Amino acid sequence: MSSPNHAPTSGFMRLRQEGRTEEVVRRMIEVIDLGLFAEGEQLPSESELALQFGVATVTLREALAVLRQRGLIATRRGRNGGSFVCAPIEVPQALLLERLERMSTMELRDLGDEQLAISGTAARLAARRSTAEHHARLLHHVEALGVANTRQQRRRADAHFHIEIAVAAQSVRLTNAEMRLQAEIGELLWIESGTAPDVAAIQQEHRSILDALVAGDANLAGALAEAHVTRGVKRLINLRLELLAAEGGSD
């Protein structure tokens, strides 16, 4: 049985094109940033990672070299050597606010529409296909959100919950899409502001979605997931408008 700390990674890392070092780097950054590989965790062997990505070993080695240069992994030689994930660096909130302000309302709505389609579909399928093991991992992520002490921990618990739903839907494409969306918008959803995310309310929303999955109620699970996404994106749009108003800007 897989550890409840993170979803299995091997099923959703394969790339569409081989020989693309930058694509391997991007996907690895997403996986590490989302905490699917934890701090200090040893990465699979080069041959295993290359197989999971569907690339040549030399391409994988080039990607790992880039990750080492960026300080995301460290490689140790010797009998107990290998590549290990370095401690994550939390993005300063000021940079996240700047990034949000640069996004247009249309861009945020477009991201929201995509996540609405992905999360809603994944939840409906998960209600039909998920197992007790999936439910246990989802419950772990629900509880992890409640005890998270930092913005990064909360963001990761939230992201893991949504990615695990896609895993429970037993769809590689939906899992890939959810991972990409979480990497793109996940940190913004946890910006602390005057309308800071209500952790208890979000945790309860997660719990309600999980209850619907356990009950096998596909329509309810999808509707709850979509409502959850809609609230998050609406908050981001309102926060961006507040930032623009404070600076006298316009959309």
What order do the helices and strands come in, and which of them pair?
Elements: H1 21-33, H2 46-53, H3 57-69, E1 73-76, E2 82-85, H4 93-102, H5 105-129, H6 132-147, H7 151-168, H8 172-189, H9 199-215, H10 218-246
Antiparallel strand pairs: 1-2
Helix pairs in contact: 1-3, 2-3, 5-7, 5-8, 5-9, 5-10, 6-7, 6-9, 7-8, 9-10
Q: CATH topology of the largest domain, what is it called? A: Four Helix Bundle (Hemerythrin (Met), subunit A)
Counting DSSP E segments of at least 2 residues, the number of strands comes to 2
Q: Examine the secondary-structure arrangement and name the CATH architecture of the largest domain.
A: Up-down Bundle
Low-confidence stretches: none
How much helix, percentage-wise, in residues? 55-70%
What order do the helices and strands follow?
HHHEEHHHHHHH
Radius of gyration: 19 Å
Count of the domains:
2
- The helix/strand class is mainly alpha
Rounded to the nearest angstrom, the distance between the terminal CA atoms is 49 Å
Strand order within the widest sheet? 1-2
In CATH terms, the superfamily of the largest domain is GntR ligand-binding domain-like
Biggest pleated sheet: 2 strands, antiparallel
Average pLDDT confidence is 88
Strand percentage, roughly? Answer: under 5%
What characteristic shape results from the CA principal axes? globular
CATH class of the largest domain equals Mainly Alpha
Number of alpha- plus pi-helical segments: 10
InterPro entries: GntR_C (IPR011711), TF_FadR/GntR_C (IPR008920), Tscrpt_reg_HTH_GntR (IPR000524), WH-like_DNA-bd_sf (IPR036388), WH_DNA-bd_sf (IPR036390)
Keywords: DNA-binding, Transcription, Transcription regulation
Protein name: FadR/GntR family transcriptional regulator
Pfam family, one: GntR
